[in-house]
Amino acid sequence: MTPTIIDRVRTTFEARFGRESILIRAPGRVNLIGEHTDYNECYVLPAAIDRAIYMAIKPGNNESHWISLDLNQTFDMPTGLISHSKLRWPDYLQGVLLEFSAMDISLPPIDMVFGGDIPIGSGMSSSAALTTGFAFAIDRLFNLGLDRVAIAELGQRAENNFVGMKCGIMDQFASVLGREKTLLQLDCRDLSCVFVPFNRTDVRIVLCDTQVKHNLAGSEYNTRRSQCETGIETLKHHYPKVASLRDVSPDMLEAHRHNMDEVVYRRCSYVIAENQRVITACNALSADDLTAFGIAMNGSHHGLRDEYEVSCPELDVLQSVAEITTGVLGSRMMGGGFGGCTINLVEEPALADFQKTMSEAFHQKLDKEPIIHVCQLKGGTEELR
Fold first, then answer.
1. Cβ partners under 8 Å of residue 289, min gap 6
2. How far apart are CA 88 and CA 287, in angstroms?
3. Cα(202)–Cα(291) distance, rounded to whole angstroms?
4. Which positions are catalytic?
5. Residue 222: CB partners within 8 Å, gap ≥ 6?
C-alpha cells in the first residue's frame, strides 16, 4: 500500500527527531468570488478544502530544523538568527516566529517536517496554509491560548512584514476558520463572517490548473494594491470619510475619473464592481439561484482580465472554454493571478463531460496534460490525533 502524506510526514519526523509532539492539518482554500477585494476591505466568499499541508512538530534543542518533504529540502536556523533564505519557503515560517516575537512571546527552537497535496502556485493558497498552520501548531504546542482569528491575523502579518507579500486576510481566515461543507461570507473590514452551508450534491466545485506558476511576492500583486491605495487617496480629497474602496460608489468614482490616472481608475472600477458581484452572488445563493451566481462568477473573470489585468492567456483559454460548456454554471480565474487555477461550478450530471472537454482544451489549446481537481469543502486547521 502506498504511504499517505500523513504517513510520510510522521515516519520522516520519527526517523529524524523521534516521536512527534503534535500533528497539524492546515488546508488550502478556494474562493468562489471576490478576488483582490480583501485588502480593499470588501467582501469575499472562500472555503477550506480537502487539499492540505500536514505538519509534525515539537520543541527542538539548540537550533530549529525544518524539512520540506515535497521539495526535499532542509533548513536549519540557529536560535534568534532570522534572515531571508534563498529557498524562500523558510521565510514564511521565519515570518511567523518574528510575529510571535513582536508579541513578546519567547519560543525555543522548533523541529518540524511538513508535506502536503496543495499544488504550489496553483492559487489554492499553500502559503497561507503554511504560515497559519505553523502559527496554530506553535499555539497548541506551547498552550498560548490564541483564538483562531488571532492566528489568521498573525499569518497575514508574517506574509506582509517579512515575506513582503501585501496580501489581505481572506486566505488565512479561510484556512483557519473553514468548516466542512460551508462557505465563508467574510466582511474583510471587520472580519465578521456568515457561515453559509453548501452541501450541494448536484453541483461540484472543480479547479483546472494551468500549471503556470506565479510568484506573487515578485509579481504585480503589490502593485495592484498600491494602485488601489492611490485611487483612495485621490478620492479622499473629495470624500474625507472614504477609508477604502469599500466606501466608494460607482458614481463617486466616475465623478472624479478625470482626477486620476486611467490605469488607477480601471483598478478601482474593478474592485467596486467586484464587491457588488459578491453581494449579488451571496443573495443569489440565499435564493438558491445558482444560475445568477454563475453569471457573477463569469463577470468576475472578465473584470480580472480586462480591468484589473491579472489574468494570463492560459487562464483565459480555460475560462472561455468552460463558460460555453454545457453544465457549467460559472467559471473564473482564482487567486492572485498570472497563473494558477480556474474555479468552475459544474452540475454533477455534466461533470464527466466537463472533464473530457477541459482535457481536450489542455491538449489542443495549451499543449499540456490536464490537471483537474474536484474539491470537497472541509474544516479548517486542526490537530490530528
1. none
2. 44
3. 13
4. 171
5. 164, 165, 166
DSSP state for residue 377 in the 8-state scheme: B
Contact, 346 vs 226, CB < 8 A?
Answer: no
Rounded to whole angstroms, the Cα distance separating 207 from 51 reads 12
Report the chain's mean pLDDT, rounded to a whole number. 95
How many residues are present in the chain?
385
Distance of alpha carbon 253 from alpha carbon 344, whole angstroms: 31
Please provide residue 193's backbone torsions phi and psi, each rounded to the nearest 5 degrees: -140, 135
**What pLDDT, on a 0 to 100 scale, did the predictor assign at position 356?**
98
In angstroms, what CA-CA distances link 158 with 123, 134, 349? Answer: 18, 11, 43
C-alpha grid cell for residue 341? 487555477
Alpha helices in 287-363 (DSSP H): 290-306, 313-323, 351-361
Any idea which architecture 203-374 has in CATH? Answer: 2-Layer Sandwich (3.30)
C-alpha angle with apex 372: 114 to 291, nearest 5 degrees? 120
- Average pLDDT for 261-282: 97
Backbone torsion region of residue 271, taken as left when φ is above 0, otherwise alpha when ψ lies between -120 and 50, otherwise beta: alpha
> Which of these, 183, 193, 201, 268, lies nearest to 230 by C-alpha position?
268
Confidence of residue 174 (pLDDT cuts 50, 70, 90): very high
What would you report as the CA-atom Rg of the chain, rounded to the nearest whole angstrom? Answer: 21
Confidence of residue 351 (pLDDT cuts 50, 70, 90): very high
Please tell me whether the overall predicted TM-score, pTM, comes out greater than 0.85 for this model. yes
CA–CA separation, 137 and 172 (whole Å):
14
Q: How does pLDDT run across 19-78, given as a tens digit for each residue?
A: 888 999 999 999 999 999 999 999 999 999 999 999 999 999 989 999 999 999 999 998
Q: Which CATH architecture has domain 5-199+379-384?
A: 2-Layer Sandwich (3.30)
Q: What digits encode the pLDDT tens for the residues 207-226?
A: 999 998 765 545 688 899 99
Other CB atoms within 10 A of residue 261 CB: 12
The domain spans of the chain are: 5-199+379-384, 203-374
Ramachandran sector of residue 146 (left: φ over 0; alpha: ψ -120 to 50; beta: rest): beta
Instruction: Tell me if 184 sits within 8 A of 46, measured CB to CB.
Output: yes
